[in-house]
Q: What sequence folds into this?
C-alpha cells in the first residue's frame, strides 16, 4: 500500500495541497539532548483544560480494543506491548508544571503488567457486557498527568480462542493514527518476531514527540502572523447561532458529561456513497461532512453555520509519521448556504473550506478564540457544538486481529456532539459521543435518519 493511501480523507486534502506546492516546507526536526521538553501546542491545550476539569468526568480518556483471535502467548503479547513503550518516549512521559510552565518529563522505560481478566466462567452471552462494564470502570478513572503512567492495558479472555486487549489511555498521548495504525502494526510486528525468539526488526525512531514540540515552538515564532490573520478573517463578525441540535431547555446542563451510541449505514447505502465519491472525484470525508452540514442547516434560520473537525496539524511532517502521540487540532469550518444551493456546489465549497483550514491549522483554536475576544462557555466552544471526523483506516495485519475504538464510555465528552465515522469493508459505521443534558437522544435519532435520507437522495441524483 502506498503511504498516501494510508492517510485519512481529511489528510488527503492536505496532501493534495502539498502536491500543488501550496504548503511551504519547514526546517528539519532535530533530536534533542534533554529529558524534559515543552509541550506541543495541542498537548498544552489538553493539559490546561485538564487542570480546569478537576472533579469533572474523564473527558480525555480514550479506550481502544484489540480483538485477538486464535491461541496467543500472553507473556509474549505483554513483552510486545512493553517494546512499544521502550521505542516511544511519549508513552512513558508525565506532564507537569515547573517554574510556572507546563513541561513533559520523559522517564526511563519500565515494563507495565497487563491487568488480566478471565470471563470464561460466564455464560457466553454475558461475557461481552461484563467485559465492557469492567473496562468502563477503569476508563472512568481520571489520570493524574504529573504522576500516572497514562496507559492502562487490560487483557480480557472471553473464550478458548479469543482475547480482547483493551487499552485505556489519555488523549494527550494518543490520536487516530496512533490508535488505528501505528499501535496495532507495532504490536503485531513485535509479537510475531518475539514469538520466533528473535529481536525486534523495526528500525529505531530518528526523533520523538518531545523533539517535535521543541521544533514547533521555534518554528512558530516566525510563522504565526499569517495563520492568525486567516482565522481572524474567517471568524470575524457575529458568529452563527449554535442552534440545533442543542436543545433550548438544556442551557443549564452539566458540561462534559458524555455517552456513546453506535450507528451504521446499510451495506447498500455505504456502497452508493463510495460510488458517489468516485464519480465526483472527491473523498468520503467531504461527502459525509457536507451532508451533516446540510442536515444541521435545515433546522437553523440563518444562512451560515460552523462545524468543527479534527485536523492532523502535527502530522504534516514526514518525521512524525510513525510516532505515537496526539497531533490533532480542532478547527472550525464555516459554511455559508446563501450562494451555494446544490449539494454539488456545497461539496466543492467544502473542499475549499477544509483545504484552507488545514493550511492554517498550526494555531490552536484556543489562541484564535483569545485573539478575537471569545471565551469558552462551560462544555461548549465559542465556535461550534458539533464535531465531525472520519477515523483513519485500520492497519492491515497478517494476523487474525482487529482494532476498534469508542466501544467503552468514559462518562465524559469534550463537545456536545461528536460524530466519528468509520469506513469498514462491510459498511460505514459510526459513533456518536454526546452530552445527554444538551442533546436529546430523540434528536440524535432524527439526525441520523435525516442524514441517511439525505445521502440516499444525493447518491440517486448525482
A:
Amino acid at each position: 500500500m502506498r503511504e498516501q493511501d494510508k492517510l485519512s480523507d481529511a489528510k488527503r486534502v492536505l496532501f493534495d495541497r502539498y502536491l500543488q506546492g501550496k504548503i511551504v516546507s519547514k526546517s528539519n526536526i532535530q533530536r534533542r539532548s534533554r529529558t524534559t521538553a515543552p509541550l506541543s501546542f495541542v498537548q498544552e491545550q489538553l493539559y490546561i483544560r485538564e487542570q480546569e476539569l478537576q472533579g469533572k468526568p474523564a473527558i480525555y480518556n480514550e479506550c481502544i480494543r484489540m480483538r485477538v483471535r486464535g491461541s496467543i502467548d500472553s507473556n509474549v503479547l505483554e513483552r510486545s506491548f512493553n517494546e512499544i513503550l521502550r521505542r516511544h518516549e511519549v508513552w512513558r512521559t508525565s506532564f507537569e508544571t515547573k517554574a510556572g510552565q507546563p513541561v513533559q518529563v520523559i522517564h526511563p522505560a519500565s515494563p507495565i503488567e497487563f491487568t488480566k481478566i478471565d470471563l470464561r466462567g460466564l455464560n457466553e452471552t454475558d461475557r461481552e457486557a461484563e467485559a465492557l462494564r469492567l473496562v468502563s470502570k477503569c476508563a472512568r478513572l481520571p489520570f493524574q498527568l504529573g504522576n500516572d503512567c497514562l496507559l492502562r492495558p487490560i487483557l480480557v479472555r472471553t473464550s478458548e480462542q479469543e482475547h480482547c486487549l483493551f487499552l485505556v489511555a489519555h488523549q494527550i498521548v494518543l490520536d487516530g493514527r496512533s490508535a488505528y495504525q501505528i499501535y496495532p502494526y507495532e504490536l503485531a510486528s513485535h509479537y510475531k518476531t518475539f514469538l520466533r525468539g528473535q529481536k525486534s526488526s523495526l528500525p529505531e525512531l530518528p526523533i520523538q514527540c518531545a523533539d517535535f514540540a521543541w521544533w514547533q515552538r521555534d518554528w512558530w515564532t516566525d510563522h504565526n502572523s499569517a495563520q492568525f490573520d486567516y482565522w481572524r478573517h474567517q471568524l470575524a463578525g457575529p458568529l452563527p447561532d449554535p442552534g440545533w441540535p442543542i436543545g433550548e431547555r438544556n442551557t443549564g446542563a452539566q458540561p462534559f458529561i458524555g455517552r456513546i451510541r453506535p450507528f451504521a449505514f446499510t451495506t447498500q447505502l455505504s456502497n452508493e456513497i463510495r460510488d458517489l465519491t468516485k464519480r465526483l472525484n472527491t473523498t468520503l470525508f467531504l461527502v459525509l461532512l457536507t451532508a451533516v452540514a446540510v442536515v444541521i442547516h435545515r433546522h437553523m434560520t440563518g444562512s451560515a453555520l460552523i462545524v468543527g473537525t479534527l485536523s492532523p496539524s502535527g502530522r504534516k511532517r514526514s518525521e512524525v509519521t510513525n510516532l505515537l502521540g496526539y497531533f490533532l487540532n480542532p478547527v472550525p469550518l464555516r459554511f455559508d448556504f446563501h450562494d451555494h444551493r446544490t449539494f454539488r456546489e456545497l461539496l466543492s465549497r467544502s473542499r475549499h473550506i477544509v483545504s484552507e483550514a488545514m493550511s492554517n491549522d498550526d494555531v490552536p483554536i484556543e489562541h484564535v478564540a483569545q485573539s478575537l475576544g471569545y471565551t469558552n462557555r462551560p462544555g461548549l466552544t465559542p465556535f461550534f457544538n458539533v464535531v465531525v471526523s472520519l477515523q483513519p483506516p485500520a492497519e492491515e495485519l497478517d494476523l487474525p486481529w482487529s482494532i476498534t475504538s469508542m466501544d467503552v464510555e468514559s462518562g465524559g465528552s469534550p463537545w456536545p456532539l461528536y460524530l466519528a465515522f468509520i469506513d469498514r469493508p462491510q459498511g460505514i459505521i459510526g459513533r456518536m459521543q454526546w452530552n445527554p443534558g444538551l442533546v436529546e437522544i430523540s434528536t440524535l435519532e432524527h439526525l441520523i435518519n435525516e442524514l441517511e435520507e439525505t445521502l440516499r437522495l444525493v447518491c440517486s441524483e448525482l
Summary: Residues 224-461 form a domain with the Chloramphenicol Acetyltransferase fold (CATH 3.30.559.30). The first helix runs from residue 9 to 19.
